[in-house]
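#structure-requests
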Amino acid sequence: MIAALAAAAISSLDTDLNCLSAIAVQDYYVRFKKSSTDRQQLRFGRIMVVLSGAGAVGVALLYISWGGEGVLGALFSLYAIFSAGIVGIFLLGLFSRRANKQGLYIGIAASVLFTAYAVLTSTKLDLHGTGIKETILDLGSWNFTQHKYMLGVYSHLIVLVVGYMASFLFAAPLAEKELTIYGYLEDKRKEKQMDIEPA
């Protein structure tokens, strides 16, 4: 039983660590050090696996220090904070041919600013060591009063709406129809029409 539990845990962790290492090497290390050799990239990847594993152990110890209470709630809250409108980005690319990268960057920036505002005005900490928790940034009636889970919903909507509107400020060719839902729907209509027409 212990071996089975260990194998299940390792099979989940190794893919995550490998993914983090591959992203760090390909998206950052190779980009900033173009003349790096395969041996250097492998060494950096191994270092990133160790650092990522240490980070995972640190997070696990943090959860243990909380007594295991509210771990899932904390995880969902962190996801809502750090997701920064990922769903909105995909929806914008899927449903809009007008969207462009400049508008998307503005949408992401707006989402990050909103998330920062919401977290700072809704998180209470013992700032002065008195045992009394205070809001990090108290704006009175302007504080974000909803549950932190809603941050994910709002950040996605902000990226979608602001990114779409901001795209009109920049001249860019329309995205190819085949890359959006409209190309898919058009292909389906053509297939359906071909099935209906007699041979």
